[in-house]
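#struct-pred
JK: can someone run the complex with zinc ion? inputs below
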Amino acid sequence: MSRPQLPTDSERSALMQRVRRRGTPAEVTVAALCREIGLHYRLNVTTLPGSPDLANKAKRWAIFVNGCFWHGHKNCRLAKPPKRNREFWERKFADNRARDARKARELRRLGFVVAIVWQCETTNENALSRRLQSWAKRVS
Ligand SMILES: [Zn+2]
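RT: done, structure tokens with the ligand placed:
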């Protein structure tokens, strides 16, 4: 894969604005970066296990963009359980993590290459772009 030309800030923000109507800021960032690196996708693919946030059925890849809190990102400052009802939250996070892992496993069993992107990773777009570019080599 040839290294694509990265967009200017204004190109990137124009694209983000277009995608923003549909997703969380983290999803918007990931969608924009996928576009940039030439990955074609559909958003929120409800016909696949776990309804991946981005997926390409023909190319058999899927990306989940996980909010750190709800998906219980381990050791992440965004996923600190509230002090009240701590046990409830700890259990909820554990359940969500187990469900996420199960969905990813189902997809892999179907031959999909799966990536999980955490919300906290989207604050460093350049690092995430590099990660996605190297991941994309497995799917193209
Ligand atoms: Zn996180």
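RT: quick notes.
Residues 10 and 16 are 10 Å apart (CA to CA).
The radius of gyration is 16 Å.
JK: thanks, will look after standup
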